[in-house]
Design goal:
The chain has helices at residues 16-26, 36-55, 60-80, 85-112, 117-145, 154-179, 196-201, 207-213, 220-250, 260-263. By secondary structure, it is mostly helical.
């Protein structure tokens, strides 16, 4: 999820196994709210991909680009072809591989110790694009092939809005938390250990679960039901999270009056 400079240092003779061991040691603790698939499956797959990328001498930015190719290929297929079991499986696989590479770029960057603002910007731009274009592509494809009643298309259109706002809210909240200088704790600094219960409870908001839901694309009524439930759960999560974020940030008062223009 971050980038690297051209002069990144790699230890000579490092093989796949060595890189994998170093990646395990370089892992950052998972967020307490990390859902089960992202935490227990995607991070692990991403670790293996990061070790492969390391031995292939790829940069984190190159891994981000690979993630984008897999992801946007799936999104394009949703527009071009009518729903079917084969399409659903292909789209799910493409999205899941793209998601794994999305985890790998950040792990590779930590392994190399070469994080950069440009790399983080690139990763966030790709993520912001995919969370908005995926539901819109689904709506366009369903409209083209007339497989659902037109009013249902409001669900993916609304989901595109919710996804964009949620992504922006998470990024902005973390940036503002950093400006509080400890008055509002960062997400990774929150007390307590991640729990299985929390990881399972937030599964409906897991991007990996959304990707897996496309496996049912051949049974449109089933897919529509799953997708609607995921969209509704994500909307509820956004409303609850936004209220929590606002309360946290409102509790912090800037030290100088001249900061009021920025943070109200």
């Amino acid at each position: 999820m971050t980038g690297q400079s051209a002069g990144a240092t790699r230890l000579g003779g490092d093989g796949f196994g060595d890189a994998l061991r170093r990646l395990r040691a370089a892992q950052k603790p998972p967020a307490r709210s990390a859902p089960a698939y992202s935490r227990f499956v995607n991070r692990r797959i991403g670790r293996y991909l990061a070790a492969w990328a390391y031995t292939a001498r790829l940069t984190p930015n190159a891994v981000t680009a690979i993630s984008a190719v897999w992801t946007f290929a799936a999104i394009l297929l949703l527009v071009l072809f009518p729903p079917s079991w084969l399409l659903g499986v292909i789209v799910a696989v493409l999205l899941l591989v793209g998601y794994a590479f999305d985890s790998a770029d950040g792990q590779l960057s930590r392994l190399l110790g070469t994080s950069s603002p440009a790399g983080e910007w690139l990763d966030h731009m790709v993520d912001a694009t995919k969370v908005s274009t995926m539901p819109l592509a689904l709506a366009v494809g369903f409209y083209r092939f007339q497989v659902v009643p037109v009013p249902w298309l409001l669900v993916p259109i609304g989901f595109a809005i919710v996804s964009a706002v949620l992504f922006f809210g998470m990024i902005l909240t973390e940036q503002l938390r950093r400006r509080t200088r400890g008055a509002v704790p960062l997400a990774e600094d929150a007390p307590g250990r991640p729990s299985w219960l929390r990881a399972i409870a937030v599964l409906p908001m897991d991007y990996g679960v959304l990707c897996l839901s496309f496996v049912t694309l051949g049974a449109v009524p089933v897919f529509v039901t799953l997708y609607t439930l995921i969209a509704a759960a994500t909307t509820a999560f956004l409303l609850l999270a936004a209220a929590k974020w606002f309360r946290e940030l409102r509790s912090w008062t800037p030290a100088r009056p001249d900061q009021k223009g920025d943070l109200r």
